[in-house]
Specification:
Layout lengths: L4 H8 L3 E3 L5 E3 L1 H20 L3 E2 L9 H12 L8 E10 L14 E11 L2 H22 L4 E6 L7 E8 L5 E5 L6 E3 L19 E4 L6 H8 L7 E10 L6 E8 L6 H8 L1 E6 L2 H6 L17 E6 H5 L3 E4 L5 E6 L9 E3 L18 E15 L1 H5 L4 E2 L5 E2 L2 E8 H11 L27 H16 L1
Helix pairs in contact: 1-10
Bound molecules: zinc ion.
């Protein structure tokens, strides 16, 4: 059932055994390999004076547990910076049993937090960590590791992920072969075309029977899809509220919506596809929808920046078989948010240099996140400045997926016969096997070799 060579060899060498449902047992060589990686990490963490703690991995958010500890440990500017870390298992919903540690349901990793006095210090810390993790991963033998702009796991902030290129990996990347810029699809931007320069024309309702897709609408009206607006509905859970809300996202008809960009722009922690009932509940008509005439207070309208700049688009009239011609954002409706929510795809022009972007896939083995002051503030973490005024520290967080890194090492270091792990992570430096159990001469020599090796 092993689908990758690395996992095949890890199984064959007895590093790992599958239990049920993508959960794996660490066998002695595998455990030694992980302990070596953790020991190397602990050595580096000690030089940063990071304090190791253990919090419950049953808690909904390990970061919140660590911040609760920080609330008690932090008093004055003398306690800053403060670093906490722990090794813990995280659970993943998207397990793939045939991939072993690369996609195991439960994987052990390092979570490290730093509380810094202000934003410049936090940025400097993030930069230090990025450089340190890259150097450390290379020292452990991981090759072809890219630093990639990505989205923070939840909430606001900036994040960089370390991604090992891997065919079919669960991370989709957009890479520029010309300038080297690379980002995950959730945050990848691209150079959008210039909207046509024309003045706003009068709004006009037209009958468009049976045109509930962009392709059929464009063909019926004989216009390119770029002259239409595409609507995608989501139901979202706001970051700071419990009640779900309908999110209406608009991109130009020749583009696709990137849901993660919509979630961030709309301030939602999670999005799912909206049902037809939910769409109709705000007065919109599926397949013929636009923000014109809907119950605006019941929906969050997020419009792509290119839609906001494009004059005279074709948009739905919120009744079956009808559209409006010449819809202009600002005149005909007012969005809640204007942001880049379009998905970058293969061939889209690079935002930096204009060269066509390429799609690639990889596996994230770690990340550094600059999270700002909002999480510590909500957790009530504060310190007194030199002047005696209370201040909220800035949070920097890192996560290293140690089990996945072990999986990546196995994929990158093997030949046709089995694993050839780098010395830094191999479970044993030497594995001495004595053949010929009954021969006292062999035994004597073996014992002597073993004693010499132990001494050296
Ligand atoms: Zn480029």
């Amino acid at each position: 059932d092993a689908e990758t060579p690395g996992y095949t060899f890890l199984r064959r060498a007895g590093y790992v055994r599958p239990l049920a449902n993508g959960v794996l047992a660490e066998c002695p060589p595998g455990r030694r390999m992980r302990l070596r990686l953790e020991a190397a990490l602990r050595e580096m963490l000690a030089t940063w004076e990071a304090a190791e703690v253990a919090v419950s991995s049953f808690a909904p958010s390990v970061t919140e547990e660590l911040l609760a500890l920080a609330r008690h440990a932090l008093h004055s500017y003398r306690d800053i910076p403060r670093l906490f870390f722990h090794f813990a298992a995280r659970r993943y919903a998207d397990a793939r049993p045939g991939w072993g540690w690369l996609r195991a349901r439960e994987r052990v990793g390092l979570e490290l937090l730093a509380l810094e006095a202000d934003e410049p210090d936090a940025r400097a810390r993030a930069e230090t960590w990025r450089a340190a993790w890259l150097a450390w991963s290379a020292q452990m033998g991981v090759s072809a590791l890219l630093t990639v702009r990505t989205a923070v796991a939840a909430g606001d902030g900036e994040a960089d992920a370390f991604v090992a290129l891997f065919p079919d990996g669960d991370e989709t990347l957009l890479m520029c072969p010309a300038c080297g810029d690379v980002a995950t699809r959730q945050v990848a931007t691209f150079r959008k075309p210039e909207p046509p320069a024309e003045s706003a024309q009068p709004l006009q309702k037209v009958a468009t029977p049976g045109t509930n897709t962009i392709a059929s609408l464009a063909a019926f009206l004989n216009v390119p899809p770029s002259r239409t607006a595409k609507v995608v509905f989501f139901t979202g859970q706001p970051t700071h509220a419990d009640e779900e809300k309908l999110v209406m996202a608009l991109v130009r008809g020749d583009m696709d919506v990137e849901p993660q960009k919509v979630a961030r722009a709309a301030g939602m922690k999670a999005l799912r596809a909206a049902t037809e009932d939910e769409i109709r509940a705000v007065g919109a008509e599926p397949g013929f929808a636009s923000p014109i005439g809907i119950q605006r207070e019941q929906a969050v309208v997020v419009v792509d920046d290119l839609v906001a700049q494009s004059p005279n688009l074709v948009s739905g009239a919120n009744e079956p078989d009808a559209h409006f011609l010449n819809v202009n954002v600002g005149r005909d409706y007012t969005p809640d948010v204007i942001a880049d929510i379009a998905a970058a795809g293969e061939g889209a022009p690079c935002a930096v240099c204009g060269a066509p972007l390429r799609l690639a896939h990889g596996l994230e083995i770690g990340r550094v996140e600059l999270l700002g002051a909002s999480l510590p503030e909500r957790a009530g973490v504060a310190f007194l400045t030199k002047e005696g005024t209370p201040r909220t520290p800035f949070l920097v967080r890192t996560w290293l997926d140690i089990h996945r890194m072990m999986g990546v090492l196995a994929e990158q270091h093997h030949d046709a016969h089995g694993l050839c792990l780098p010395p830094a992570v191999a479970p044993y430096d030497v594995y001495l096997v004595r053949l010929g159990h009954n021969d006292p001469d062999v035994e004597a020599v073996a014992e002597q070799v073993a004693a010499t090796l132990v001494q050296s």
